[in-house]
Amino acid sequence: MLANWLSQWKWALVIAIFAGPAFAYWSYTEGQTFKHVLADGVETSAVIDGGESHRGRRSGTSYNIHAIWKTDGGIERQEKIEISSEYAHKIIDGDYLLIEDAKIKYLPNEPEVAAIVVEDGPQRIADKELMMYLGAGAGVIGLIGAPIFFLVGRKKKPEPVREPSTKSNLGF
Description:
Order of helices and strands: HEEEHEEEEH
Mean pLDDT: 88
Oligomer: single chain
Helix content: 40-55%
Structural class: alpha+beta
Strand order of the largest sheet: 3-2-1-6-7
Low-confidence stretches: none
Radius of gyration: 28 Å
């Protein structure tokens, strides 16, 4: 039973060696995108006409709000904007949104980049930085822990069996 448990953990640690840094890099790039939108984006007021929450099987709940705003060119734009759990708890009471509009920032020249709620931006960046550190930590733990688990789980070589000798040690 212990050997089976060790075997499962050692392979999870091997996966963490690669998955942890990949997750850290992904979180870093998303955090940089959020910083770019907050620093260089155009601020406007958006009408919030709904929201959604999605409960994952293993992960927590994710929240989106549906925002509508007019760009500087007068074009109406609609988007589901992901928000942090902390911000969601501030603006949602039961099944009701407590806000009708919000200040958002978006990049007019990069429509594929998602808009961000200004009030929620710093929290989203902090969440991504935490995920970056957790991913890097998982990689380090995997790098240190996997060899240890492989060494502990290694089977010892059996000693060669000596055949009984027919000669006695007395020289007869």
